[in-house]
Amino acid sequence: MNQIKFLEPTTFSEASTLLAERGDDAKVIAGGVSVTLMLQQKLISPSILVSLGEIVNGDFIRLESDGLHIGALAKLHDLERSQIVREFCPALAHTFSVVGNVRVRNQATLGGNLSAADYAADPPSMLMALDARVQVQGAEKKREIPLDEFFLGFYTTALESTEILTEVIIPKPARAAYFKYTSISAEGRPCVAVGVAADFDSDLCKDLRIAVGAAVETPQRIESAEAMARGQTLTDELVAAIANEYSLTLDPLTDVRGSAWYRREMIRVFVQRALEEVRNDR
Length: 282
Ligand SMILES: Cc1cc2nc3c(=O)[nH]c(=O)nc-3n(C[C@H](O)[C@H](O)[C@H](O)COP(=O)(O)OP(=O)(O)OC[C@H]3O[C@@H](n4cnc5c(N)ncnc54)[C@H](O)[C@@H]3O)c2cc1C
Fold this sequence. Notes:
Elements (H helix, E strand, L loop, with lengths): L4 E3 L4 H11 L3 E4 L3 H8 L7 E4 L9 E4 L2 E5 L4 H6 L1 H6 L1 H8 L4 H6 L2 H7 L6 H7 L3 E5 L4 E5 L4 E3 L2 E2 L6 E7 L4 E7 L10 E10 L2 E10 L9 H5 L4 E2 L2 H14 L10 H21 L2
Helix pairs in contact: 10-11
């Protein structure tokens, strides 16, 4: 077997330059949870691994005037326990706490979780509902990508070949809820993942974002269904109607965690529960 060269840049910009120089031979590795499995199963065979493990200050968690900023190298276990994350959005801290098991969360980074673009994941739906965006570093420039435009398909993102995800920005706290439905085991990957974030003025819903993942190729929002809530009181009837809209409009997939028919039913149930939780959370 060929030896794999292990490179350890200390800045994101250096990492991106290495990707530009080494081309398709190079693969980024962060926590390594997915990459090591892909190597073991011979799904990838890079000759160079560009490790992000030595990048200085890549795992920050800080509140700024424009929202919560999380470095791509922050570990999911640190995020679930972070007081800053818990105070900013308890539902977001909860989302990190239900990923896989503690061994996975101790190793997995937020940047790795998003960049892997695995459809059966938790953070993407909650972060999309929270209107998060990511900052990425290319060999020549940085740019921001709204999470709404980041996931392009199964294991495919809007990242270009030399770009590295450096930071996740969540613009403002919101009343939010995350529901993960697992059909196989309690610590398994989601069959359906529902993230909801809403703004209220007294009883009236000013803004609503619902992202459903794991049941579909990429997390998806249905803006016409979200708009049904704008300026309205979230009555039981309205909540049921929005949940129904999600269930009927999305085109769920079939896999080992459930059939398309089953997922359609579970989307209805879990969108409804998540909306009720956000409505009742005062
Ligand atoms: C047993 C098990 C259970 C799991 N259960 C869940 C679950 O319930 N919910 C869930 O959401 N996930 C689950 N996962 C997936 C896990 O969360 C991801 O594998 C992990 O988050 C990946 O992060 P990492 O830092 O280890 O990334 P790595 O494995 O290092 O990288 C993953 C991918 O992203 C790329 N990459 C990494 N960092 C960056 C970056 N900053 N910029 C650009 N590209 C980058 C890599 O090249 C690779 O393609 C599970 C995994 C396992 C093994």
